Structures are given as C-alpha cells and as structure tokens.
Automatic annotation (TrEMBL):
Gene3D superfamilies: Glucose-6-phosphate isomerase like protein, domain 1
Chain's gene name: murQ
Keyword list, A-Z: Carbohydrate metabolism, Lyase
Entry's family note: Belongs to the GCKR-like family. MurNAc-6-P etherase subfamily.
Top EC class for this record: lyase
Biological role stated in the UniProt entry: Specifically catalyzes the cleavage of the D-lactyl ether substituent of MurNAc 6-phosphate, producing GlcNAc 6-phosphate and D-lactate.
Protein name listed in UniProt: N-acetylmuramic acid 6-phosphate etherase
Length: 271
C-alpha cells in the first residue's frame, strides 16, 4: 500500500545552517503554532477513543501505550505521570517501548522493526479483552506497533492509535485511529518536533479526560494526587484551606492525619 508520508516531506525552510539563532527560533515557533490547530481537527477521533478508554477502565481494564523511539517515550511519560497526578495504581496506565526500558534513554537499533516483540511485550502484562491498547507512531508504519495491534484485534482487544500521516497502515489497523496531520517538520523528517508535540497533546487529552471521567478530579483540583514532595504537600494544604474554609494549621493537621486531599475533605465534613 502506498500513501504520502507528509512527516517525511521536505521542510518548508532551507539553508537552516545559514539562519541566525533568532531566525531559527522564530521559524521553529511558527511551525509549532500549527500543531494545536491540527489536533483540533482530530477532536472527533480523539473523543471516540477516549470513550472506549473510559468504558474499559470503568470495567476494571487497563490502558496500554505502545510505541518506538520518541513515540514510545512519550507514551511512557504520560503513563508514568498518571499515578502521582491522579492517585491511580501504576498498573492502570502502562507505557511500552520497542527495545525495553533501556530504550527510554538510548536508542536500541532495529527494535522497532520486530513484528513479534510488541505482542510479546503486551503478553508479559497478561493483556486481555478488558484492556485498551493505543499504538503511537508518527509515521504510522512502525512494524513493532502495527503487528501488536493486529494481534490485539484478533484477540478482541480494543485498539487505537496516534499517528501523523493520513491513511497509514497503523491507522488502517487501529479500530479507533487518531490522525493528526502536522505536515513537514522544520528539520526534514525530525518527527520528534511537530509530530512529537502533537502526540503529547493528544496523550494529555486521553489520560486527563479519562481520569476526570473516572472521578479523579474534584472541581478543578487533583484531590487524589500523591503527596510525594513538599511542593505537592503545600498544594494539598492550599486546596483544603480553600475547599473547607479552614486555616493553614488545620489543613496541615488534616493532611498529615488522612494522607490525601480527598480523604481529608471527606472525613472533615464527617467530624
């Protein structure tokens, strides 16, 4: 199957090495501004996948992100931020990358070309039809990701994807594809730039909207966040001061006693 990889097309700019720092930054910024508009066009697709994620998570399933290179790293970042932000178990949102954890810091050659390892990695987590698997690949042609989603489809597992090319093999494989068409990169083919930004924005939407739907936010506050450092403890105390109309000392005592903002609010009203 042939399709046009707009992410691989020549940059709109040339002779980059002759540009001043100011010109480079201005032009990169000019291209970056187009990304949210591209994401906006994909909102209907993002909504459909989010609905599936919420449904499965409410039924006790898990969300998996699977990708290679930049795409894999972005999935891992989003997954790793869900427990501290929303107080969910580390096993609820899981990010997998071609080449394993060592590939997070250093590229593993040819790992993305495997047509079996993606499914093997999912099986290590006892993947089942209760779960949702989202493949992430800017090009939409990564064998590691596509083959994993193909196996998921055969095993009645909901599949989605985030890609930046129209009509790619990945989008045609996923049941709920998200295609964010960002066009050529500032540096030709460097999909860690606009494509990576687009993928990050979509991942933010998928996880944040899903967690809100699961009741992990109250009003607009992260009441289930993990109090893992002084900054977050201070933020939690301020939430309690505002929510319960109490003084700082009382807020500090409540947070120490109950260990979370949500529990402090619930138990304070019952005291």
């Amino acid at each position: 199957m042939k399709f046009t990889k707009t992410t691989e097309q020549d940059s709109k700019y040339n002779n980059l090495e002759k540009m001043s720092i100011s010109e480079l930054l201005s032009n990169i910024n000019k291209e970056d501004k187009t990304v949210p508009l591209a994401v906006e066009k994909s909102l209907p697709q993002i909504e459909k996948l989010t609905q599936q994620i919420v449904l499965k998570l409410k039924e006790g399933g898990r969300l998996f992100y699977i990708g290679a290179g930049t795409s894999g790293r972005l999935g891992i970042v989003d997954a790793s931020e869900c427990p501290p932000t929303f107080g969910v178990p580390h096993e609820l949102v899981i990010g997998l990358i071609a080449g394993g954890d060592s590939a997070i810091r250093k590229a593993v050659e040819f790992a993305e070309d495997s047509t079996t390892q993606g499914w093997n990695d999912l099986q290590e987590h006892k993947i089942s039809s209760k779960d949702v698997v989202v493949g992430i690949a800017a090009s939409g042609t990564t064998p590691y990701v596509i083959s994993a989603l193909e196996k998921c489809n055969k095993n009645s597992i909901i599949t989605g994807c985030i890609t930046c090319n129209q009509g790619s093999p990945l989008a045609l494989t996923a049941q709920f594809p998200i295609e964010v068409i960002v066009g050529p990169e500032f540096v030709t083919g460097s999909s860690r730039m606009k494509a990576g930004t687009a993928q990050k924005l979509v991942l933010n939407m998928l996880s944040t909207a899903s967690m809100i739907q699961l009741g992990k936010v109250k009003g607009n506050k992260m009441v289930d966040m993990q109090l893992s450092n002084n900054k977050l403890v201070d933020r939690g105390e301020k939430m309690l001061v505002t929510e319960l109309n109490i003084d700082q000392k009382t807020a500090t005592e409540l947070l120490k006693k109950y260990g979370s903002v949500r529990e402090a609010i619930k138990n304070y009203t019952n005291e």
